Amino acid sequence: MEVKKDIMWRIYFSFFFICLFGVAIVVQIFRIQFVQGTYWKQKADSLTTDYRDIEASRGNITSDDGSILATSVPIYDIRMDMNADGLPEEFFNDQVDSLARCLSDLFKDRSKSEYKHDLRQARQEGDRYFLVRRNVHFPELQKVKQFPILRLGRYRGGMIVETRSVRENPFRSLAARTIGYQRAVKPVGIEAAFNKELKGVSGQRLEQKISGGIWIPINDKDEIEPKDGNDIITTLDVNIQDVAEHALEEHLRKHNADHGCAVLMEVATGEIKAIANLSRNSEGNYLEDFNYVIAEATEPGSTMKMASLLAAMDDGLVSPEDSIYVGNGEYSYYNQPMKDSHAPKATKLSVAQAFETSSNVGISKVIFNAYNKTPQKFINHLKKFHLDKSLGLQIEGEGEPRIKDVKDKDWSLVSLPWISIGYEVKLTPLQILTFYNAIANNGKMVQPKFVKEEQYHGKTVETFSTQVISDTIASPAAIAKAKKLLEGVVQKGTASSLSKSCYRIAGKTGTAQMFGNQFGYDKNHMSYQASFVGYFPADNPKYSCMVVVYAPSNDMYFGGAVAAPVFREISDKVYSTRMELHDTMPVTDSLVKSVPLAKSGSQKELNKVLAQLNVNVISPNADAAWVSTSPSANSVRLSERKIISGLMPDVSGMGAKDALNVLENAGLRVKMNGKGIVSRQSVEAGTKIQKGQQITVDLN
Amino acid sequence: MHVNWLDKYFRGDRTIWMIVFILSLFSLIAVYSSTGTLAYKYKSGNTEYYLVKHLLILVFGIGLMYAAHLVKYTYYSRISQIAFYLAIPLLALTLAMGTNLNEASRWLTLPGINLSFQTSDLAKLALIIYVARMLSKKQENIKDFKTAFVPIMLPVLIICGLILPANFSTAAVLFATSCFLMFIGRINMKYIVMLGVIGAFCVSLFVGIALLTKSSGRVGTWKARIENFVKGDDQGNYQTQQAKIAIATGGLIGKFPGHSTQKNFLPHPYSDFIYAIIIEEEGSLGGVFIIFLYVLLFFRVIRFINHSPMAFGTLLAVGCTFSLVFQAMINMAVAVNLFPVTGQPLPMLSMGGTSIWFTSIAIGIVLSVSRQVEKEKKEGGAELATT
Questions:
Q1: What's the CATH code of the domain at A58?
Q2: Which chain B residue is nearest to residue A31, measuring alpha carbons?
Q3: What average pLDDT does chain A have?
Q4: Helix, coil or strand: residue B147
Q5: Cβ A21–B322 below 8 Å, yes or no?
Q6: CB-CB: which of A6, A24, A154 is closest to B338?
Q7: Do A611 and A661 sit in the same domain of this protein?
Q8: Omega into A537 within 30° of 0, i.e. cis?
Q9: Shortest Cα–Cα distance, B273 to chain A (Å)
């Protein structure tokens, strides 16, 4: 019993020890609860739950007809938790090979063995956040979700998918600078200007953090739903924009220019239909990276002459018929020489002629004579044209215009004549265009507009009406004279290259010298800025447009030669696509009476078309399927064209569609060259043919 | 009638049975509540999955307990021998090729039935019984170093040594339990203290090495845990921090079952930190009650052991009980931040098949001893008197 007693006290001792242990735990519990209680409770409140932002989806930016110019699409980063709880070693080793192959096949950015190596290494390092691939689009993500290992999901396959939203421009670089972008540093364009509207309102959701740093929503009630951003409907026309950019790029390339811009505006509303800005990068490619149209204020050169003359005409000091002595095209103001770029045709020109040929001496003398005593009057008149004020555009970054006052420090005796021909002032292309647009708009100056509407889910939130800057910048008589002058420039002046057209253009060329080494030229090497600004159709202006090419370097630098062709390509495109412009097209009698050219082809279809056009038809064989046409005095004669199987049919005079139809039905393999109507067929009509024989058809 | 039926089938100390049932109930509630995140993660919110699974595990565990308590405890002497010799190769195997969970090779997947279990749980029970057996056998010259201390200490060192690389805390707790058991079994205190000193030296050496070397693998985990504990306050240890929040916000009567918020923050709220969740939901009163249950368990064992004449029975029951209660205290001490974070489950409360089942078997063994004592008491003191 001694042994038993010995054991028992030891057991009691152990029991006592356990009791002590228990008491220690109890004490600690109460210590945490009562001594440190408040601290931990506060901590709990700050840690457990939080209102988390739910980002709203950003609105779209669309063209005037609703084509999407900028939109937000979700994009995904795929990562892998290599230490995922349910990803056993054996399974990983088993499947890593096929996973690597799948990834390599899909993304093609790394070879299978590279992928395998990367995956293995990440697994070895226990990387819980291994980047598999960045910027994966939705269809790819769907595929990745089917891949070995990853298809098991987050906890067994370690797949982590992170969603972001990226801004995409479906038309890529089209009007890129005007559409702009929103980012932390220096956002630009419409994206920046309308960020508040586009952004929407973030929602909030009460969420709780669970282990592993995952946030889960607590309930649905407290949620503040995010409100999607509004869509911004711009005034841009995708088709015209496309033409403007391509035409501009083509000519910039041709003239090896430093940069250039083109902008098209609707006369009555000020809506910008196209705005292109291109500059040459170090590799010689032209890219949109600066909005010259709105931002670059330079000395405009000859395009200023219109403002000068309009001021003088409005003041009744000058009339286009007045004559001015220009001599040999050289003149000095206070020993400061001025020279015309082309020697004048005569020593004495009418003011209109001086304007049309863009005579520096002529125009400056007119203004000098008119305002020499009262230069500030001239300046004030220019200010009446609002040329000294910025336009207050919807988007940021407008260049500051400058019209100097007589009292300004840098005013000199020669300031007046030089300002009159577009030097010693600064204007942006859009400011000049706005002035010319006012002339086209019969004196009413409107603010250029980039955005016409704000929508939320297709419903209008706000429309941006046309802002009138000035109801009339000059007297109607003066405006009418100005229009005449501008038409003269195209008809017989520096922009005569634009005269041959089925609609009439009015406008003014500009060739400004740029001093200094701004574009890598020193003082001895003059650099030029070629421009053309105008409107069309001249008799009922609908659109105004300005094109500026900076520093063309292939020997050609006159506005009429460098900038006018770009204008022409844009105006042609606009004219051909805008039906409302065609109403004014003159219709001559001879056109109505003559019989139209009709292609040979299906009699049924020819009859339909000719009946629509009210053309008389003479057809001896009304049942014939295929006919050839022959025009007579005021009717079209249709004669049957027999198709005999086994013999080569005659397809001459047919359109491509009909010819192909006939020939393929005869069992021939057809190769076609050119377009228009069939002028030649490689196998003569009536010769024997075999099925599957090849035949070539030329059209023109 | 009812009582008779219970008497007939549920032998042994009735209070212990009661304790087991109450603990199971607590376990069921706490696990159901705290597997929310687990269910959210793996079973798309199907929390019943874990409830049913855990219920089945508990029922099976009580079944095991029932079976174990029917076996006459003297048989465990033999079984422990077999289990002990089985445990050694199994532990070695686990170390070599066990499933790598949290970088610790603790789990062995049984071929055929595809069930992974923690071999250390088996080894632990086997060792405790084996030590009890050896102690009772060597009672005649228990104070001897060569014939008593060495043959008992050697198996302890072997088993603990095999567990150590994968699971430091289990090895340490098992070693401490074994030492206590040897103290109870009257091994010369001198040797135990000596071994304790050596053990402490080894541990501190290990800690020192861990702190000085670059942390990688398990050593990294240990190092981080020790550093966090030493650094103390709220900055370091996320788990302790969250556990303390659970305890503090639980208050006296708790947030009531299912209302824990900390279960979402605590890693393994259903095992390592289940005690914190219990305090959060059932309050400190619930927490104290759990401690009381474990202490009561020990107390009940001591009570019937008073009547037990046999050294093996005594040592077996006390060994199993002490191991269990001691582990429970360690777990709770971790949850209240008295101890650094270890991976010890709370016996009978934490989720996890192997732990619950081997705990059940241990209690079954205790009940078997209790049943035997009762039986002998009933069969008359005469027998006792004659011996």
A1: 3.90.1310
A2: B248
A3: 84
A4: helix
A5: no
A6: A24
A7: yes
A8: yes
A9: 13
Angle (nearest 5°) at CA B247 between B244 and B250: 145
Is there a single domain that holds both residue A300 and residue A429? yes
Q: Is residue A2 part of a domain?
A: no
Residues from chain A contacting residue B315 (CB–CB below 8 Å): 7
How many Cα atoms within 13 Å fall on the side-chain side of residue B76? Answer: 35
Nearest to B35 by CA among B52, B56, B18: B52
Give B333 to chain A, closest Cα distance, Å: 6
Does some domain include residue A22?
no
Q: How far is it, in rounded angstroms, from Cα A570 to Cα A263? A: 9
Q: Closest-CA residue in chain A for B339?
A: A25
| Residues A564, B20: Cα–Cα separation, whole Å | 98
Report the mean per-residue pLDDT for chain B: 81
| CA A366 – CA A384 distance, rounded (Å) | 20
Contacts of B326 in chain A (CB under 8 A): 18
Return the bridge partners of A181, or none.
Answer: A188
Cβ neighbours of B312 in A, within 8 Å: none
Closest Cα in chain B, distance from residue A215 (Å): 10
B344 touches chain A (CB under 8 A): no
Decide: A536 and A504 in contact? Cβ < 8 Å.
yes
Does A188 fall in a domain?
no
Give the domain extent around A611: 589-699
Residue A269 phi, psi (nearest 5) = -105, -15
What's the CATH code of the domain at A621?
A: 3.30.10.20
**Is the distance from CB of A248 to CB of A262 less than 8 angstroms?**
yes
> Would you say residue A284 has pLDDT above 90?
no
Q: What is d(CA A416, CA A323) in angstroms, rounded to the nearest whole number? A: 20
Which B residues, 111 through 130, put their C-beta within 8 Å of a C-beta on chain A?
A: none
Q: Are residues A223 and A276 in the same domain?
A: no
Whether residues A401 and A448 share a domain: the answer is yes
pLDDT digits (tens, 9 = 90+) for A53-107: 777 888 899 998 888 888 888 888 888 888 766 677 778 888 899 999 999 999 9
Look up the pTM and report it: 0.54
Interface confidence (ipTM) of the complex: 0.88
Mark whether A625 and A479 lie in a shared domain. Answer: no
Q: Which residue of A has its CA nearest to B288?
A: A26
Number of H helices, E strands in chain B: 15, 3
Other Cβ atoms less than 10 A from the Cβ of B162: the count is 21
Give yes or no: residues A434 and A286 share one domain. yes
Q: Which residue in chain B has the smallest CA separation from A33?
A: B248
Q: How many CB contacts within 8 angstroms connect chain A with chain B?
A: 128
Q: Which of A544, A533, A572 is nearest to A265 (CA)?
A: A544
Q: What phi and psi values does residue B149 have, to the nearest 5 degrees?
A: -65, -50
A133 vs A625 pLDDT, higher one: A133
DSSP A525: S
Whether A343 and A488 share a structural domain: yes
Is B338 close to A3, i.e. CB distance below 8 A? no
- Give the residue-averaged pLDDT of A387-398: 89
Q: Touching check for B356 and chain A: CB below 8 Å?
A: no
CB contact under 8 A, B325 and A18: yes
Number of domains in chain A: 3
- Residue A207 within any structural domain of the chain: no
In 3D, which of A416, A426, A472 has the Cα closest to residue A303? A426
**What is the residue extent of each domain of chain B?**
1-70+236-381, 72-231
Contact between A216 and A433 under an 8 Å Cβ cutoff? The reply is no
- Among A290, A234, A302, smallest CA distance to A258 is for A290
Nearest to B30 by CA among B286, B359, B258: B258
* Residues contacting residue A173 through CB under 8 Å, at least 6 positions apart: A245, A287, A288
- Chain B, nearest residue to A19 by Cα: B295
Q: Which residues of A touch B40 (CB under 8 A)?
A: 210, 216
Domain identity same for A380 and A471: yes
Q: Would you call A21 and B186 a contact, using CB atoms and an 8 Å cutoff?
A: no
